[in-house]
Amino acid sequence: MDTPRSEDRRRRIEASLAWLARYDAIVDDPAAFRAALEPPAPVDLLVHPGRTTPDALGNALAARGLTVETFDWAPHHLRVGAGSAPLPGAGTLPEVVFGLAIPQGVSSATAAQALAPRAGEVVADLCAAPGGKTALLSFLADDRARIVAGDPSADRCGLLVTNLGRMALTGPLVVKQDAAALPPVAAFDAILLDAPCTGEGTFRLAAPRFEPRGESGLGPARALQRRLLARALDRLAPGGRLVYATCSYAPEENEQVLAEALAARDDVALAPLPDGTPGLPGLTAWNEQRFPAEMTLARRLFPHHTGSWGFFLAKLEKRGGGAGAAGNSAAAAHASRASTGTAAPQQPPADDPEARTELTAFLFDRFGVDTDAALAEQLVTARGRDLWLLAHPDALAGRDVDLGALSIVAPGMRALHRTNTGPRATNSLLRWLGPRITRCVAELDGETARRMLAYGPLPCPDQSLRGAVAVRVDGVVVGAGHVRDGMLQFEIPAAWR
């Protein structure tokens, strides 16, 4: 007998499938599209290129009886299947817990790859939580771009900080910010706008996240997307590029939003996406509406194209000197605050000599780190009882960036926490330092590490170690540990497991 919950779920699925039938006329294979909605979403992983490679990680997973699939068009991703071994949840895979990868649907890779940020650029990732796209943006720029990653929700900012910390990235700066009211803090070289949407592309039968609202859901979503895109284009530097993306199939949220933005400005145009981007071209017509011919440069990704979520993306480029140019952004930010009578929420990050000295002494004394080399391109800042690292690429010198206009949640990567018993290195810091750590290291093989992760403390291989240590598994530092009475335990945060 059906319970009220199962009956509600059945009705929700039926309503969703009925709504998605509106796309049968524009999809290349309606039967394949429907079939792709039946199974749950696969387990896709974004691999951290600074800590391992897809080949190495894939071989390790295959050796444990799991199946692994790679993607020519998404070289940083793997798809993991059960094979001959049970497949745990993606977040509980040891490789994810150890920071070698992070769960991310492979369709999402297309947005960051299309934006293609470069070292030294000033980049905005608007609506950034939970952080997978921010991480890939940072990987693509070798963690040497100034990435301002924002979200208007404090809880989602916390999730963003957590996931970037897992990846041990010092380039992104997390801010609590409504992207529709983004102040003129910079003329951004590149902007990723993965806009809030109805989310119909996330629908899979086993765990439907999409809440069908029909026509009533399209109007509010489109209104927000129009505001977000207009503000983002205002903040884009002449010559800059913007990727607009949603996880919706609806032309009302995609081509229509873009067509209205293009009609309102004379300084932006659609640009080609990278060769090999999967999916179908954007639409030039929907029902009674007509869209510009250049809309075919966009891409529509259905689940049968990638095996992942449904997705839409388009790339826009901004010409110099046209209407709406970002102009001298830092000066504009100061003028904006002066005209409204508001002050900057806080001081922007700056190097703190005392904090640098404290961190340098601790890292050398405890872990034997050559800090002159390790910290040469990092700002060291203090906030409360924490010390933070924030990359400061040389190419940013002299750039017109006014971060003081933003409400900064995390000025980079949390590196050190001061406790009543002394300083403690974060797991993020130890992962980031990696091979620079030369002492107080507990060496484990993969099998022992997985056993310790599952069952708790085990005898430390090096009985001379005491107290806080870095744990290295198969040659890669995975985080912090503690040795007491000869027993080694992980101190990886519960939020990362």
Brief summary of the model shown:
The protein has 15 helices and 25 strands.
How does this structure look, described?
The chain is an alpha+beta fold and 497 residues long. The chain has a domain at 440-497: Archaeosine Trna-guanine Transglycosylase, Chain: A, domain 4, CATH 2.30.130. It contains 15 helices and 25 strands. It has helices at 4-20, 30-36, 54-63, 94-97, 109-115, 132-140, 154-166, 215-234, 255-264, 303-306, 329-340, 353-367, 371-374, 427-433, 446-455; strands at residues 43-47, 67-70, 77-81, 101-103, 122-126, 146-151, 172-176, 188-194, 236-246, 268-271, 280-281, 285-286, 289-290, 299-301, 311-318, 378-383, 386-391, 408-410, 413-419, 422-425, 441-444, 458-459, 467-473, 476-484, 487-490. Strands 5, 6, 7, 8, 9, 10, 11, 14, 15 and 18 form a ten-stranded mixed β-sheet that branches. Strands 21-23-24-25-22 form a five-stranded mixed β-sheet. It is globular. The chain starts with a helix and ends in a 7-residue tail after the last strand. The model is unreliable at 322-345 (pLDDT under 50).
Secondary structure elements and pairings:
Blueprint: H1 4-20, H2 30-36, E1 43-47, H3 54-63, E2 67-70, E3 77-81, H4 94-97, E4 101-103, H5 109-115, E5 122-126, H6 132-140, E6 146-151, H7 154-166, E7 172-176, E8 188-194, H8 215-234, E9 236-246, H9 255-264, E10 268-271, E11 280-281, E12 285-286, E13 289-290, E14 299-301, H10 303-306, E15 311-318, H11 329-340, H12 353-367, H13 371-374, E16 378-383, E17 386-391, E18 408-410, E19 413-419, E20 422-425, H14 427-433, E21 441-444, H15 446-455, E22 458-459, E23 467-473, E24 476-484, E25 487-490
Parallel strand pairs: 5-6, 5-8, 6-7, 8-9, 21-23
Antiparallel strand pairs: 1-3, 1-4, 2-3, 7-18, 9-15, 10-15, 11-14, 12-13, 14-15, 16-17, 17-19, 19-20, 22-25, 23-24, 24-25
Helix pairs in contact: 5-6, 8-9
